Amino acid sequence: MMRDNILSYESLGWVLEKSEAGFYLLVASPRMQAHVVKHYLGPGVAALDFLSEKRQGYYFTAVASLLAELPPETRTVFFLNFQAVLFEDDDLKRLNFSRDMLSRLRKNLIFCVTPAGQDRIIRGALDFQSFVELTFSFEDELPETDTVIHLERTRWLPQDQSTGVTVQIDWTWPKARLLARAISLNNEARTFRSENRFSDARELLQNAVRIREELLGPEHLETASLYHNLAVVNKFIGSYDKALEYDQKALHIREKILGKDHTQTANIYSQLASIYKELHNYPKALEFHLRALECRERVLGPSHPDTIRSYNSLATIYKYMGDFNLALYYAKLALDFREKVLGNDSPDTAVSCNSLADIYRSIYRYEEAFKYTEQALAINKETLGICHPNTAATYKNLAELHQETGNYAKSLECYWESLKISEQALGPDHPKRAEIYFELARIYHDITQYDEALFCIQCAVDIFEKALGAEHPNTLVAKQCLDIIQRSIQKTNETLSDSQADS
Amino acid sequence: MQYAHKIADIINAFQSKPLTIEELDDFYYGDTMPVRTGNRDASPILDISEACKTPSDSNVFLLLGHRGCGKSTELNHMSKHLQDDGYPVRTIDCAADLDLNSPVFEDLLILMGDALLSIADACGCELDPALQKFLETYWNEVERDWTAIGSGTLESGVNVEAKTPTLLQILRLSAAMKGILKYNEQRRTIYRQHISKRLSEWTRAIKQIADAITEKLDGKQPIVIFEDLDKLESNEAWGVFFEHARTLSDFSFPVIYTFPIALSYDARFHALEGFFQARTFPMIKVQKLEGGRNEAGFDAIRALLRKRADLDALFEDGVLDRMIEKTGGSLRNLFDVIKDAARLTRRRNSTRIGMEATDYALVSLQSVLTRRIEKKHYGFLAEIALGNREEIKDKEMLLEMLQGGIVLEYNGKRWHNVHPLVEDFLRDQKRLPAKQNDDA
């Protein structure tokens, strides 16, 4: 879908200036709807907000009675947050049936909906949709005034818990003993990695690499394994360039000795793809994922867990590249195989459900997004339990879906649930909890519950500072939002005291 | 509505709604039947129109047609001509007067009675006093039933003590009844039960009213059109039409019910054809069954558009043809593309719609259409696109695709094709071979 705000603004102006009557669709987030519409209010133009009306479902009589209250010279009416009355299938049916009656009102009726709302109309209210003259789509613009902004989607890296390690190698030892030392260093490095002692692990591995390079040569398969392990550790630390360098060395050796059609070579392809993904080099990531897939399909077959993992990875990359059809194709393939091979009660199946839901969400197909997220949640609760990070994450996904589709009450409920679980699963000071507090603050601010918003944003700031540091972008954003919320509270208090003084 | 001389006018020239009676003189183009039916002399609307002027025992029609094919515009045009010839026509907007979520056939009979009463009033027709008394008594009995269950009275302004109520009073009663029919679920049930129990009396009364009108107008029968019934869902439509076909068709004056075209694919439809005369209003054919353009269809659409806009001033060469080709004969789709292309053209301060703006608009429309399909539909659609256009076995999927505008249906000989934009999409998905000499 093409989104060009300037074109949409100009088209809206055209309609207001020239159109005699008709239905129009304005697709934007609730915040953006309000932002756009306020530019056009004036003589002959009115706005009705269905969120503030708190109506249950769509009824023509309700709409007609709202319109009857407007001045007769009103030619154009914006129905803000119209998606709020389109939750049930019956709402869409009634919307269809009332199409001609709405048309006979002979006004410009601009129905403002979120992308989810538009999707529901396109797929479930065909008669109504057929009368839509034009659709205006607006991307969220950066705010000029006091509106809460978004967290950066920076990757949070686990904190390095290294304590420092010294490795001593006695090069006078016999070859066999030195090689055994390399193996033990590798094993110890693995243990350190699991304890988040990444720098320590790296130190051990570098020494192990030196031993093998010295004794076996830089082009030996066993040396390649250590290069690969070093790449993994560097990736964990966020040293992506180093990670690339080591994995490319490992790849060169494995391709040369094992060939391209070996699962160990495929593992490197996969790892390289994931590094390129972290570097946002999606074409390169795609190239390597496809190589991994090709090899795994040939050697392991389509239903091997590693092959399925490749399907899932490809789905993610295609999603990032905006090719949603292929993303869906691979995500569904992964899910199909996981359901067949692992069954409906495997955490990996839940991962696939979440991936699929995420893609559907990207293309605003919220019905499917909800379906798969709820499926993932059911599996996670059943298999991992209520106190697992994956369960918390899935609740968060569900909360985000409800937030995007305007169901703030349900969104709040799911965020609080996610928060509760993540406290046990991740600890009270995990930055993921700060993210949830942040989103809660956003919602509370949007629905003008400023006290709750203040509490939540303060929690977010505290955790971000503790976990990521005072200068981390997310900490700074959270502080900015705290500022905005405090100003909103101040403004409200000023307005209240002014009106008290007047009365 | 306004004729478009320049780009800015396009927003009003290509509105999605049907032409009203007032707009017909300026904007209606009627010579599309040959390219709809494939036969110069075949016209479903003309059939209905002529039948309306010819007394007969079987003048009750089901009118079918896909969304946006021009059905309502043609009905309005027919109504206008019949009225010009002195025939009284009433169009009942069922969506306005009924709760279409739960319609029953009794509702249609109530509305029919109301329509005929208003015709009688309009043409100064005197109803037999016995008939008027019957009408007043009939509804007062409903009121008594309602009151008996302790639920208030009908506020209609009708003097229930009057010996012979006037037609006006009965009309007011009828109008009040319509309101209840639409909004009051409890009372609606009572009314329906009453009609059900005394159905033959009510239908007899309807016929008597119609006869009185016909006599008053020297043999010109009243004509009643029920709009919006084509929006009913399948099970509701069957509940109304199939179960009560005899009652709904047992009128000697012309009645036209719009009908969901999806149901014509159901085996039960043949049974309905024993009671009603079914007429399908087809889409304009812009392609031939064997493939290739139907130039006559293109010409007809261009002529239709010429009634609304200065085509030479507003469209660059080749643009209209591309729009017509890619919208497959769906006029509403075509109008949407024209408006969408116009807005981009406006932004560029251009005076004529060019190919780039056209492609932009086509992509937007394609995006809307393809949201209605999933991977499970691809094989089915590809099969149609590759040539299986007549004998389509999976009726359920065909219906779903027809209702979504993904598959288009053409007539003469009933056949189907995938919407051209969806066909392009399938080609992009490698579900169809690349088109030779593709100009994409």
Explain this structure to me?
The complex is a heterodimer of chains A (503) and B (440). Chain A is mostly helical and 503 residues long. Chain A has 23 helices and 5 strands. In chain A, strands 2-3-4-1-5 form a 5-stranded parallel beta sheet. In chain A, α10 runs antiparallel to α11. The radius of gyration of chain A is 28 Å and the shape is elongated. Chain B has 440 residues and is of the alpha/beta class. Helix content of chain B is 53%, strand content 8%. In chain B, the strands form 2 sheets. A 5-stranded parallel beta sheet of chain B has the order 2-3-4-1-5, with helices on both faces. In chain B, α8 packs antiparallel against α11. The longest helix of chain B is centred in the first third of the chain and has 20 residues. Chain B is globular, with a radius of gyration of 25 Å. About 3% of the residues of chain B have low confidence. Chains A and B meet through α1, α5, α6, α7 and α8 of A and α18 and α19 of B.
Brief account:
The complex is a heterodimer of chains A (503) and B (440). In chain A, 67% of the residues lie in helices and 6% in strands.
Main features:
heterodimer, A: 503 residues, mainly alpha, five-stranded parallel sheet, 5 strands, 67% helix, B: 440 residues, alpha/beta, 7 strands, 53% helix
Could you outline the blueprint of secondary structure elements for this entry?
The complex is a heterodimer of chains A (503) and B (440).
Chain A: H1 5-18, E1 22-27, H2 30-37, E2 45-49, H3 50-53, H4 60-68, E3 76-80, H5 89-97, H6 99-103, E4 108-113, H7 115-124, H8 126-129, E5 132-137, H9 175-194, H10 198-216, H11 221-237, H12 240-257, H13 263-278, H14 282-299, H15 305-320, H16 324-341, H17 347-362, H18 366-383, H19 389-404, H20 408-426, H21 431-446, H22 450-468, H23 473-502
Parallel strand pairs in A: 1-4, 1-5, 2-3, 3-4
Helix pairs in contact in A: 9-10, 10-11, 11-12, 12-13, 13-14, 14-15, 15-16, 15-17, 16-17, 17-18, 18-19, 19-20, 20-21, 21-22, 22-23
Chain B: H1 10-13, H2 21-27, H3 33-37, H4 44-53, E1 60-65, H5 71-84, E2 89-93, H6 94-97, H7 105-122, H8 129-148, H9 167-183, H10 185-197, H11 199-216, E3 223-227, H12 234-242, H13 245-249, E4 255-259, H14 269-272, E5 277-281, H15 295-306, H16 311-314, H17 319-327, H18 331-347, H19 355-370, H20 375-385, H21 395-403, E6 407-410, E7 415-418, H22 420-428
